[in-house]
Amino acid sequence: xxxxxxxxxxxxxxxxxxxxxxxxxxxxxxxxxxxxxxxxxxxxxxxxxxxxxxxxxxxxxxxxxxxxxxxxxxxxxxxxxxxxxxxxxxxxxxxxxxxxxxxxxxxxxxxxxxxxxxxxxxxxxxxxxxxxxxxxxxxxxxxxxxxxxxxxxxxxxxxxxxxxxxxxxxxxxxxxxxxxxxxxxxxxxxxxxxxxxxxxxxxxxxxxxxxxxxxxxxxxxxxxxxxxxxxxxxxxxxxxxxxxxxxxxxxxxxxxxxxxxxxxxxxxxxxxxxxxxxxxxxxxxxxxxxxxxxxxxxxxxxxxxxxxxxxxxxxxxxxxxxxxxxxxxxxxxxx
Length: 335
Prior knowledge:
12 helices; Rossmann fold; D-isomer_DH_CS; alpha/beta; six-stranded mixed beta sheet; about 35% helix; 2-hydroxyacid dehydrogenase
């Protein structure tokens, strides 16, 4: 089967080509899948999209008109795909249900430690041979409280690291995770978690009920010296409200690997262009805020698992099998 993969990173390309070799013919493009690039997929029965793709009804319609019948997204999240439109068009949609939770959990703690210990500021100074310690005072994590919103596989991995630091553990989720409870986690409502936690990390999916879960009210209820980490989805935080709190001098630090309006920005080189996103530009001005470009998942282990699962999803489709990763099964158009 001929497969077109879009949104492919330079490090990812050789891994994709090696995994597909001898099974399917794959063409890799760096550009993300959106309304402008969807016509490139004409003639490809299977298309593999990245997490930053925009698969709205218009894009899906273009893909279907060009002969695409299967979409294999290389991510766990699928809030960027109009599944109802895919169903109407008879498109099969699959995702990657699972990959290394340690990649994201470890990166979330990397962000937390970076803002707590002022690593970015310190590294910038020492490159200029400025070895002062002014403004670099951090805090011990031992004995402090970690609040984990979402205690699935990634949240559990984050909790295990917090337990290793010797932290008190608070969790919020639809149902408790027994493994987290065994580590000493106490489940509380989210209002109590926001009010009590010193480090708050988000590990829930972006669905209507979690959109802007961290809104103005939640932000105001947090401790003035709290650390907020988001390595899940940008839409979980009301970014404008966050900027307001930062301008008021609140929070020890904020680490964001995702951003509400990251589509069309993240994974791209915008260094020679004028910044048109005022909210992102303001975020970048705060010395205790670290923004990275949706890279928490980006380890060799995790990317390899994502690619292997994508190959399996496409192979199963080609051979008439349906696996656990299918979001929209094959159906004739109009049914």
